[in-house]
Every structure is written in C-alpha cells, then in structure tokens.
Amino acid sequence: MILAVRQLAILGTLLAILWAAGLLRSVGTTGADPLAPGAVPMVLGFALLAAHLSGRLLGYLSLPTITGYLLAGVALGPQGLGFISLEVRDSLDLINQIALGMIALTAGGELAISRLRPRLRTIGWITLLQTVALFALTSGGHVLLDRWAGAGPFSLGRGLGPDQTLALALVVGLVAVANSPASTVAVIAETAAEGPLATVSLGVTVVKDVVVIVLMSATLAAVHGLVVPGSSFDTASLVLVLEEVALSIVLGALLGAAMITWLARVGRESAFFLLGSLFLTLEAGRLFDTFVHLHIHFLIVCMTAGFAVENLSSRGEELIRNLERSSLPVYVVFFTLAGVGLDLGSLVVVGPLALVFVVWRALLLAVTSWSGARLAGEPRQVANLAWTGFLPQAGVSIGLAELVAARYPEIGGRFRTLVLAAIAINQLVGPVLFKWALRRAGEAGRQEDG
C-alpha cells in the first residue's frame, strides 16, 4: 500500500510537471504544435514514464496494465493535458510500427502447432460463425435501425439514399468483425496465461485478422459499386488484396527462415537482429508500395514469421520467451501512443449509437463464441468466457475508418465518428474483461493441462 501511494504521488507530480511544461510551451505560440523536433524524445520519455506508473497502479487493482497505458495516453494527448499532439504521435510512427511488429511476432510465436492442434475445430467454428453472423446481422441490423430511427440520435444515415445506406451498413458490419491481436497478446503475456481459453482467443484473433483484410477488400469493392455512380463491383481490387496477403505470407516465411538461420548459426545479439529485420521489412514494404503498387501487410508478415520460428526451430520457444520478457517497453510505447489517438470526444457526437453498436457486437460475440465452442466440444467454461477475448479493437478498424472517410466523404465522416467512439469503449473495457475471464478460467500463470 505504501508503495502504491508513493507511485501515485510520483505520477501526480509528473503529470503536474507535464501540464506546467505544456502551459509554458504554449505561451507566445499559435496554430501548429509548438514542440521543437529535438524535444520529441524527451516528450516520449516523460510520457512512457507516466504510462508505466499508471499501468503499475492499475495492476494493484487487478486491472490490465495496458489499460493504464491507454489512459495515460488519453491524459497526455490532445483531449487531456495536450502534452502530446497528434503530430508528435505521427512523428513516432516508426517506433510504433516496430512495437506492433514485435507484438505480432509474439502472437505468431504463441501459436505452437502442438497447442493449436486440439483446438483447431474450435478456432475454425468460432472464426466462421463470428465472421458470418457479425457481418450479416450487424449490417442488416444497421439498415433496420436506420429506417426505424429516422432523423433521431440512433440514425447514422440521415439524408442518404438506399444505395449509400446499404454501403454504410456494409462497412459498419465489417468493423464489427474486426479484433485487436495486440490487446489479446498483451493481456495473455501479462497474466502468463496458458490454457484452452488463451489458445482459442489468440488463435481466432490471429486468423480473423487475415480474414478481415480479405473481407475488407470485398466489402470496399461492393461499396464502390454502390456509392460511385455508374460503377460496379471492383473485382480487380479483391484480386489485388489476395495477391498482397499471399505475398505477405511468403515474406513472413522468408523472415522466419532468416531468424531461424540466425538463431542456429549465431545465436547472439538476437534483439539487435530482430529490430534490424523489422526495420528492413518496413522499408521493403514501403518500396513494394511505391514501385510495385503492392501493399505489404506488416502484421501478417510478422505473425507468419513468429509462427515459423516457433514451429520450425528448436530454439523458437527461447526467442518467444525472450520477446515476452522484454515486452514491457514495447507495450508501453504501443498502447500509450494508441491512447493518444483514442477519440473520446466522438462519444459526445454519437454516444447513444456507439453504445448500441458496442452492446450489439458484444452480444453477437458471446452467442457465436459459445455456439462455436460447444460445436467443437469445448467445456462450458471456455464457451461461456471466450467472447471476452474478442472485444478490443484498434488498428484495422481505425485504418478502415480513415480509408472510407477519405474515399467516400458522403458516408465516411459519420462512419469514422462512430468507429472511433466504439473503439474507445471496446479498447478500454475489453482488456479488463479478458483478464478477468482468464483468471476466472484458472489459466493465469499456469501451464495448460491439455
């Protein structure tokens, strides 16, 4: 208790210093963020220290530390003290991408075939039911709700024609399917959880991340035909995404082979080689995007590499465990910057509708997870708790919201606001419920019994 009080006092003092620094920094400046580029590393250092303390304090309350990092990011971001602007966050994108790559490597490395094999049916059933049910029922439910609501607070498609309303419903349904592998991995790593619930949650989340990318292409192809006059279903875009996913898997396998070779031949300075490999992968993806016009899905590359190292190398377990032991700064960076970008202000604009979306999605996740787990013969406890691992949302959903807003301003503005509001709720509530579920299942901090 004394330690907690001391850390709370340190956090309070640090936040006061940051607030005063931001106030002094704003004196005599107008318009753009006044922070000098050379001060960005110092800002990041202070922010990460505050986030680490926040995570430790929430840990005393048995809450996920990543929730503390997210809240610290919100507090220090433009909606809080304003110490970190969105421009500063964007300038740290490379660091954020490297952190995401390490999390994705860990996710792939946790998918050991020996642990997956008994749960493949469960992962398959839950993935299928969630993808079909959430997409179809959320899209259909949105159309019905929009017709019922008229011009009320629950209507997102006010003034839109039938085709545009359907297009908006399709992208809302797509967002309902998307998850956040980073949040799932972080909670599992923090609790050292191993067991049926952890395996199923991670397996479904990783598989669905690939499914969502393909489904997103098909959905946007349909949206293009509905929104743009005189156009039709964009088959070429769907084929292109399938090629990009296949290329990303191939590059991930090559990256995994390089890591396996390094572990076998050198075995030292693995962290140095890992960081260099991730940076090289990001640069290769940029070149492919620029000159070949193929988008490399960095998350898929890293998850494939982690999966290959874990299952094809005798030292794969060692690499993954080293990643987990060094995960603290990675999670602090990633989730603090994610917190900076959480748009809590959007809750004021579409609060009632966002809450309806979150509750509806949670109910569908619960029903489909229970049904899939029971069809695969999982125990009732796993079936009852599995849905909690799929609540958090982040990267793919945000990317989709920004893409739709840029391409189709007729429907994109309202859609983006709804998605950001829903993400804010799910990202703050989801990890808390998932950590509770892992403890309830008795999987936190123990090995799987089978």
Gap from first CA to last CA: 38 Å
> What is the rounded Rg?
22 Å
The low-pLDDT segments are: 446-450
Total count of domains: 1
Q: In CATH terms, what is the architecture?
A: Up-down Bundle
Structural notes for this entry:
The protein has one domain (104-440): Na+/H+ antiporter like fold (Up-down Bundle). The longest helix has 32 residues, at 196-227. By secondary structure, it is mostly helical. 48% of the residues are buried. It is built from 19 helices and no strands. The radius of gyration is 22 Å and the shape is globular. Helix 11 (235-265) packs antiparallel against helix 12 (270-292). It has helices spanning 2-26, 40-60, 65-76, 86-91, 93-109, 113-116, 120-149, 162-177, 181-191, 196-227, 235-265, 270-292, 298-312, 316-325, 327-341, 346-375, 380-385, 395-407, 409-440.
SSE inventory with pairings:
Elements lengths: L1 H25 L13 H21 L4 H12 L9 H6 L1 H17 L3 H4 L3 H30 L12 H16 L3 H11 L4 H32 L7 H31 L4 H23 L5 H15 L3 H10 L1 H15 L4 H30 L4 H6 L9 H13 L1 H32 L10
List keywords for this structure.
Na+/H+ antiporter like fold, 450 residues, disordered C terminus
Briefly characterize the structure.
The protein contains 19 helices and no strands.
